[in-house]
Structures are given as C-alpha cells and as structure tokens.
Amino acid sequence: MTAEDPHLLSTPELSVVVPVFNERDNVAPLVGEIVAALRGKLPFEIVYVDDQSKDDTLAVLTGLMAGTPELRVVQHVKQSGQSTAVRNGVKAARGAWIATLDGDGQNDPADIPKLLEARETADSAIKLFAGWRVNRKDTGSKRWASKIANAIRSRLLRDETPDTGCGIKLFERALFLDLPYFDHMHRYLPALVKRAGWQSVSVPVNHRERSTGVSKYNNLGRAWVGLADLRGVGWLIKRSKVTATREVARP
C-alpha cells in the first residue's frame, strides 16, 4: 500500500466477485460502475473470474488493472461454468463478505450499498441478502420461465425466496465456502443457507436490459438442468442435520 493509493488495504471489507464469459464490451462499464458505487465508502476489491472467454475479455480486464487498483483477475485454465467461477472467485477473495454480480451488466452495482445497509440492521442469523428483481427487463419468455421455475422451487424447497436467479447477492464468505458445492449451486443459495441453519432475506433491486453481447442460457436448457438440481437439493435438505456445539471448559 502506498500514499498514492489510500483506498487499498491488505484485507478489504468487501470483495465483489464477477464471473464472465465472452463479455468484452460489458467489462469496462461495469468495473467503472462498481468503483463509482463503492470507492470512498469502504475498503473493497473486485475479483473478476474469466471462464476461458473466446473473445478478448481477458485482455480488456488486464488493461483495466493498471488504472483500477482494486481490480484482480482470475482465469480458469478450462471452461467450467458460472457456479465454478463464482466459487473460485470467492475462494480467491480476501474480504469477509462477498457481493456477486452477473457480468452482463444487467445487475446494477449501485444496489450493493443497499444490500450493505440491509445487513447493518439485520439479525445476526441472516447471512445472505439476495437481490429481488421486482421489475425484470428480460424477454417475456424468460420472465415467464423464471416465474414458473421460482414457483416450483419455492414449493418444493420451501426457501421462502421469490427470485433465486438474481445475480446480485451479498453473503458471508465463510458460510458460502462451507456449503455443498455442485454445478448451478448459485441458483439455490437461499435453500442451501437455510439447510446450514442460517437465514436469508430478499431485497428489491434494479434490473437492466442487456446492452451488448448475448445470453449464455436458454429456457429449455435451464429447465432440464433445473429438474435434476431440484431433486438433488431436495435430497440434501432431507438428509441434512444441523447440530449446535459447545466447547467444554477445562476443569
């Protein structure tokens, strides 16, 4: 740390984790928005995880590092998907709390302070603050597919969460790394947090249209994967057992 970079600390309070794949035109605007939302408010870092992009996303990120001291970049050695990118970003992060954003720019970094404010007044048992896209800017087919999927998931898992697919979330790093890992786990965080004996709360957030690039998912693919995941998460919940412990005092 130098006098020229007073906002840099060896241990930031917050790490913003952003997974990306082929998002070269969205990288610079989103990094700028994250910096604008957080610089001067608390010590933070930005951890981008490039999932072996086929375009020059990595080159754009590398170029931004010189002018953005908070920015760190992690690259997968092979393409592994969004959940793995999120998990590896959290593992690389140094902050005790993690904020996640999708790399397509549809999440608004200005909502991160709102999640932080919600944390300040929340019960200590709440370890996940999940964004809730009350006014989604996706296509009609995506909105309907998400509505149906959320209804089915909520009924089966009883996670009491209206929107698990929203990419902007705030959670405790230690808790996240203690959760069972599997592909697409990022869509089931409220249920997994509840399974671990903690609570989550949904916070209304802004949602924006994708301005550039293309979506990496389609409704049919999500549906097939979602059915298998629902069965798996349901099994995890059914087989889980959370037991409090206490250390016995030395006589």
Could you write a compact summary of the structure shown?
With 251 residues, the protein is an alpha/beta fold. It has helices at 24-38, 57-65, 82-92, 112-120, 140-157, 173-178, 189-195, 219-239; strands at 14-20, 44-50, 71-75, 97-100, 126-133, 169-172, 199-205.
Protein model, in words:
It is a single chain. With 251 residues, this protein is an alpha/beta fold. It has one domain: Spore Coat Polysaccharide Biosynthesis Protein SpsA, Chain A, CATH 3.90.550. 38% of the residues lie in helices and 17% in strands. It contains eight helices and seven strands. The radius of gyration is 18 Å and the shape is globular. The chain starts with 13 loop residues before the first strand and ends in a 12-residue tail after the last helix. The relative contact order is 0.15. Pfam families: Glycos_transf_2 (PF00535). Keywords: Cell membrane, Glycosyltransferase, Lipopolysaccharide biosynthesis, Membrane, Transferase, Transmembrane, Transmembrane helix. It comes from Arenimonas oryziterrae DSM 21050 = YC6267. Residues 15-176 form the Glycosyltransferase 2-like domain.
The H-and-E topology, N to C, reads as EHEHEHEHEHEHHEH
Helical percentage: 25-40%
By secondary-structure content and strand pairing, the structural class works out as alpha/beta
Cα distance spanning the termini: 46 Å
Strand content: 15-25%
Question: CATH-wise, what's the superfamily?
Answer: Spore Coat Polysaccharide Biosynthesis Protein SpsA, Chain A
Please count the beta strands (DSSP E, at least 2 residues each): 7
Low-confidence stretches: none
Total individual domains: 1
Query: What is the CATH class name?
Result: Alpha Beta
Q: Please state how the strands of the largest beta sheet are arranged side by side.
A: 3-2-1-4-6-5-7
| Mean pLDDT across all amino acids | 86
Report the biggest beta sheet as strand number plus sense, adding barrel if it closes.
7 strands, mixed
What is the overall silhouette?
globular
* CATH fold annotation: Spore Coat Polysaccharide Biosynthesis Protein SpsA, Chain A
**C-alpha Rg, in Å?**
18 Å
**Tally of separate helices:** 8
CATH architecture descriptor text = Alpha-Beta Complex
GO cellular component, one term: plasma membrane
Domain Glycosyltransferase 2-like: 15-176
Keywords: Cell membrane, Glycosyltransferase, Lipopolysaccharide biosynthesis, Membrane, Transferase, Transmembrane, Transmembrane helix
Organism: Arenimonas oryziterrae DSM 21050 = YC6267
